[in-house]
Amino acid sequence: MDAPSQDINLNSPNKGLPEHMIDVPVDTPAGGDGVGVLSEVETEELKSELIKVEDEIATLRQVLAAKEKHAAEIKRKLGLTTFNELKQNLSKGWQDVQASNAYKKTSATLSTAGSKTSSAISSVGSVLSRTLGEIKESPTFKSFEESVGNLKAKVIGNENNAKDGYQSPTATSPTAEEKLPQDSAPF
Fold this sequence. Notes:
Blueprint (H helix, E strand, L loop, with lengths): L39 H39 L3 H18 L1 H37 L1 H26 L23
């Protein structure tokens, strides 16, 4: 028998099989599982049937292998590779996930949480900006800024005088002309 050329409908266990390959039910004696109660003739018949069934299984495996090979050739001719099939399966799976109610609910919840978080961060940013602006305009900060500016001028003035020579003890603070222009930075 030429197994690859035989056309078998695999949806039905008996359809398309030769008559000698159709399953024959095995009756067991009424006394139980049938072990040890068989006559020699029955044992030989069962052994011969077992050999036939095992041969049928081997034949079906050969037919299945031939069908799988044929299907692979068709896929190759159509340009369907394993990678493309995997990609299509993943794409379809992702579409199915996106269409599910759980995904839609989760997506909506995350979107709402994201917009609330964004608005909270924006509010915190504007409060911080306003508070820092108020601090910068406070009299305490202006006094501190002026003190730092004076200290900076003294340090720079002392460095310049040290380069030029000895500074007299009476020249402890720079005159208005000696003051350096202050930058707008707070420190």
